[in-house]
Structure formats: structure tokens, C-alpha cells
Design brief:
Pathway: Nucleotide-sugar biosynthesis; UDP-alpha-D-glucuronate biosynthesis; UDP-alpha-D-glucuronate from UDP-alpha-D-glucose: step 1/1
Number of helices: 18
Number of domains: 3
CATH class of the largest domain: Alpha Beta
Shape: elongated
Radius of gyration: 24 Å
CATH superfamily of the largest domain: NAD(P)-binding Rossmann-like Domain
Low-confidence stretches: none
EC number: 1.1.1.22
Catalytic activity: UDP-alpha-D-glucose + 2 NAD(+) + H2O = UDP-alpha-D-glucuronate + 2 NADH + 3 H(+)
Bound molecules: uridine-5'-diphosphate-glucuronic acid
Helix content: 40-55%
CATH architecture of the largest domain: 3-Layer(aba) Sandwich
Strand order of the largest sheet: 3-2-1-4-5-6
Mean pLDDT: 96
CATH topology of the largest domain: Rossmann fold
Structural class: alpha/beta
Active site: 267
Binding site for NAD(+): 31, 36, 87, 122, 159, 270, 337
Length: 444
Amino acid sequence: MFRVCIFGTGYVGLVTGTCLAEVGHHVTCVDIDADKIDGLNEGRIPIYEPGLEPMVRDNVRDGRLHFTTDAAEAVSDAEVLFIAVGTPPDEDGSADLKYVLKVAETVGDNIRGSVIVANKSTVPVGTAEKVDGVIRERLAARGEEFPVEVVSNPEFLKEGAAVDDCMRPDRIIVGTRSKETADRLRQLYAPFNRNHDRLIIMDVRSAELTKYAANAMLATKISFMNEMANVAERVGADIEMIRKGIGSDPRIGWHFIYPGAGYGGSCFPKDVRALASTAREHDVEPELISAVESVNERQKKHLFELVARHYHGGENLRGKTFALWGLSFKPDTDDMREASSRTLVAQLREAGASVRAYDPEAMDEARRVFGEPEGLAFCDSSEATLEGADALIVLTEWKQFRSPDFRLLARSLSDRVVFDGRNLYEPADVESMGLAYYAIGRGR
Ligand code: UGA
């Protein structure tokens, strides 16, 4: 059993802390947001994440998981400290380290003995050295000198599958020079590291860059497929056939080759930009990485182009009403950060159209993001969006949108047309009901 302290109760911190408590460690999570901490102590989870809520409640009840705003107290007897605070982008896209460095100050001001400081936040190469410097400065100001090892331990969890990713990781990356520290972390992670060894030990800088490389590679696969889909659409080919044709090559693989309405979320857009910014800082022109981003920006607008094309020009959308299914950036989350829905809703409203939107989890978030402007109605169900709608647009592949009643759609949509930003349906199934069907890259 380790005594662990985690800074930050966002996705990464909350899920990591809860999973570490679940396997028997004694975990204290620290956040500066007192309301959030009060809620968590009462078992209220600020995010929607499958499986997380009961796990938090059980571990709080069993006394293994604590939430506090008192950083000094939490730090004082911890053996391993995790930094899992946000790194919002600066104006130039580079990651802003103010929260990470603030944690380093708190650590330096309050530790009372030897600690491992493991950074889980996604941070630019060289951050561990900065954190180390700040901690040492603060210790020196106190006239203290404790053995402190700052390691990079990036997180690879996916929203919507975060608990599972944390309990059964593909790999655990630890960037450290110290064999002793690596051994300690191996013990900490032992419950997640059964059957075969998932721990990959490397130098600190490589660990920091690995995180960006992983996200940028995945984003590259998506942008590549989106670009290919646009070619397929124009040449009269079907990207879904191409996806099957190339995914069966194990060197390419089946994952992350789904074309769509562009990637969103709190990670890919931010990390791709931050990596480009790191490359530039070091005199490397990030040609491919920049293209990944610009292809994605264009892709977020592609569905609107299909809509405008169907109506023979954006000017003909004035007065039209669109049912919209899905607002979150992907299923199983209420997160709308950088979601394609934000771009599309703005485009439709700008063109003078009305939108009737529904999302299984993101309705509160949508109200927060959009407010309640004229021309945007929030509905209680996917069926309710169809009332008075001319056309349907599907934007997030929630399970419940996968097999709709096409007869009902054909009866309800006065223009009898479905635009599908996630390629959920068989074109023949939709078209056999007398509906026109537009998807991504399916120009037949
Ligand atoms: C992503 C990574 O997948 C995680 O490994 C990483 O830990 C995390 O970022 C992070 O850095 O914290 P996440 O942002 O939760 O996780 O979501 P993903 O499931 O990766 O999806 C990202 C976006 O790509 C979504 O908008 C999704 O719709 C889109 N996507 C994904 C596609 O358009 N096509 C695909 O084939 C796959």
C-alpha cells in the first residue's frame, strides 16, 4: 500500500486516484475548487464517466479515497505525488504550465521527506526539469534538502472508457533516470500490471514526447481518412469499403480509421497544436502535424457543405429546421470541448436555419455552451427533435442513434433527407424508405 496524493480532480486525476484507491492504495485528491471537493466527498461526480461514480462512492466509504482543498496537509505524508492539473493552451497553442508549476511550488513548500513526483498532465518536453527546479528552489528557501525524483508518467485514458483504460492499461510509461524510482512505481502499479509487463521505462524527455506522439499519430490517422473520404466522395467511391480494404492490413489496423465530422475533445486538438508549437520552437517545421490540424478544421465544416449542396446553396437554408442528434464530441461523454456540433450549429444558425437538438448526456453542457439563443431548441428525446423538422443531421455515434425507425423519419422530415456525420447507416436501408441520404465519403 502506498500513500498517494493527486493534484487535480479532472478526468485524469479523478479516474487515476479512484483506480489507485480501488486496488488498495491510500489516496488523497487535492483541488482548489471547494465546491467540487465538497461534492466529491458526498459522492457527487462532476463528469459523466461510465463506472466512475459507484467506484468513487465505495472507496470514499471504505476510507481509501479522500478529497480535500488542503494541499499542505495532503502533501505532508505522501510517498508518491501525481500532478494531474490542466495545461490549457496559450494563445500560440503551446501548453500553459501555470497550474503545473503552482503545484511544484506547493510540493516544495510542504513536503517533509523523500517523494516521487509523477507528472500525468500532458506537458511539453522539458517540463519535468522545470518542476524539479521549482521544487528544489522552494526547498532551498526553507533550508531543507529531501530526495525528490520528478518523473514523467503520461496518461492514455479515453473519455467514456477511462475507468477501464486505467484498470487495464495497454502500457504504463515511466520516464525516469533512477532505477530505484522505477522499481517503486512498478510496485505501485503492480495491481494493473498482471500477466505481462506493461511498464515501459525510458528517459524523461522521451516519456513526455511519447504522449504527444501517440495523440498526434491517432489524429493523423483520422485526418488521413477524412481526406481520403473527401476524395472518395468526389470520385464516386465508398470510404466504408476502403476502410475495410485497408484496415485488414495489420500494418494499418482497424482502429482510428473511421471518417467523420472531424475529431474534437480536450486532447487531440490541443495536443496537436502544442506539438506543432514545440517543433517550431526547436526549428522543425511541423508540416504533417499542421496539415492534420487544418484538415480537421475543414472536416468540421464538411457536413454543412453537404447540407448546402443538397439545398443548392447555403442561402436556401434560411427558415429550414434541422433535427440534430448528438452534441458531445463522441459518445459516452457529456464533453463538448472542440465538438464538431459547435461548428455546425453556428454555421446553420448563421445561414438562418433553426436547430432542434438532442444528446443523451450533454444537454446541460449544451445549455451552458450555447445559452438559449433564438433558433436553437433543446429537446428531451431524439424523437422530439423531429417535430416540425425538415431534415435530420446525426453528429455523434451514440448507440441509441444506430438503428432509428426510418419509417418514422420518412413520415416526420418534410424534406425527407438525412445527413450522417458518422456513417452509421446502410445507405440502402435509408433510401428504401424514400429518404435521401448523405454520409461522409460515400459517393456512389
Ligand atoms: C484521446 C486518446 O484516444 C487517448 O488515448 C488519450 O489518453 C486522450 O486523448 C488524452 O490525451 O487524454 P479522447 O480525447 O477521450 O482520447 O477521445 P478519442 O476516443 O480518442 O476520440 C477523439 C476524437 O476522435 C473524437 O471526436 C472521435 O469522434 C474522433 N475519432 C476517433 C474519429 O473521428 N475517428 C476515429 O476513427 C476515431
